[in-house]
Amino acid sequence: MQTQSLINIPDIKIPEITLIRDVNKHLLRGHRWIFADCFDGKATTGLALLKLRNDILAIGLVQADTQLRFRLLCLTEEPFFRMNNIPQSLLNWSENQFNKAIELRASFRSNETNSFRLINGEGDGLPGLIIDIYDHTAVIKHDHSVCEQFYNHQGIALKLTSVMPFIKNVYYKKRNDLEIKGVDVLGSLQPEVLFKENGASFASNIRDAAKTGFFLDQRDNRKLIGQFSKGKSVLNLFSYTGGFSIFAALGGAIDVTSVDIAKAAIVAAERNFEVNKIETKHTAIAADAFLYIDEQIKNKQKWDLVITDPPSFAPNQKAVEAATAAYTKVFSNSLKLVKNNGMFAASSCSSHISSDMFLDICREAFSKTRKKGTLVYFGGQPFDHPYPLAMDELRYLKFALFRLD
Ligand code: SAH
């Protein structure tokens, strides 16, 4: 049974972890995280029952080494949960969550798009589990080692191939800082995986790439950039492998410039132009975008459309103030590179910067450069990146397209 199940359940008695603060209301509303200050300090990484006074409220994963201490899997009040048969309850729970996630994406795969996020962690009720699909390849990723013990990759691979027979390879991608980059769970990962997004083709070296291989979350925003690029010169700052650049070119841009500090990303951006057989002039520059912006301001160089999608500047709550200043600066400097009546797209993937904070940052950036902006579009992550309504922090992606007036 274990090999086919989606999760591994330990044979030993499941330990308890006791709350010192009543956070039940927060859990009943759909929040899934409890931080270290709600516990008395003693914790062991692994599966645990969450106890408040004499009641067992839930079962979840304990991370003894992080401030995020407990990730809720399932409340004991769920109708299918049986205290006298926890293994079976968890097996039912995991099957149910997987089926719901698959159902949500049921009609999504098409000739135009065969890359999507199948499981978005807490957003699909499967904490710490990410599964992205790149045509025939599924990539599993976790953000903590406890998830590696809990989720059963073999069982997941079996499930994936049974419901999506087009999947031939399943790869488990470990955290980037580890020596072993990943393991083949099923088949063997191709050095270059090709996939489609809204009609464009992309190639990714998944093993060495960022995240699971591509920033799938910008899909809708990349499509939008394509729709606004006709006849324009486009500058894509922090371009990674050229996602926005490809859509700009396919949308009829007259020339496109991609800038990223990672040489491998720039080489991959050029490869993506090749894969799409695009003839548009593409200048791919491996450089520090902050320095590049300063130089181009000095050169008085300007573009019709500038996209600025930097990495997260706020990895935690403490960094928010510094990050706000950094975003304001990079956006206001980017605005100096936009021609009169041109367009500017700004994005932030930091979960600690809310939508309101992000728009305030944009207002400040416009004001600093003494320009007026019209908000043409404001969006975020696409529907394959859902999040619990009670966890606004998981609505991490912000993307705004402005016209300069
Ligand atoms: N827009 C991209 C994703 C960008 S992710 C897409 O749609 O796929 C952020 C990128 O910023 C990463 O590729 C990272 O290499 C790059 N980066 C980080 N610091 C940088 C810097 N100082 N200058 C230029 N690029 C940088």
Provide keyphrases for this structure.
single chain, 405 residues, Archaeosine Trna-guanine Transglycosylase, Chain: A, domain 4, Transcription Regulator spoIIAA, Rossmann fold, seven-stranded mixed sheet, 28% strand, globular, binds S-adenosyl-L-homocysteine
Describe the structure.
27% of the residues lie in helices and 28% in strands. It has 405 residues and is α/β, with parallel strands linked by helices. The protein has 3 domains: 16-82, Archaeosine Trna-guanine Transglycosylase, Chain: A, domain 4 (Roll), CATH 2.30.130.10; 96-196, RNA methyltransferase domain (HRMD) like (Transcription Regulator spoIIAA), CATH 3.30.750.80; 215-404, Rossmann fold, CATH 3.40.50.150. It has a 7-stranded mixed sheet with strand order 15-14-13-16-17-19-18, with helices on both faces. Helix 5 (219-227) packs parallel to helix 6 and helix 9 (320-335) crosses helix 10 (355-368). The longest helix has 19 residues, at 86-104. The mean pLDDT is 96.
**Remind me, CATH topology of the largest domain?**
Rossmann fold
Gross morphology is globular
Largest sheet: 7 strands, mixed
Total separate domains:
3
Percentage of residues in helical conformation: 25-40%
**Which architecture of the largest domain does the CATH hierarchy give at level 2?**
3-Layer(aba) Sandwich
Bound molecules: S-adenosyl-L-homocysteine
Number of E-type strands = 19
Outline the low-pLDDT stretches: none
What class would the helix/strand composition place it in? alpha/beta
What is the gyration radius calculated from CA atoms?
23 Å
| CATH level-4 homologous superfamily of the largest domain | Vaccinia Virus protein VP39
* Percent of residues in beta strands: 25-35%
Distance between the termini: 64 Å
**Mean pLDDT over all positions:** 96
**Count, helices:** 10
Strand order of the largest sheet: 15-14-13-16-17-19-18
- CATH class categorisation of the largest domain: Alpha Beta
Series of secondary-structure elements, N-terminal to C-terminal: EHEEEEHEEEHHEEEEHEHEHEHEHEHEE
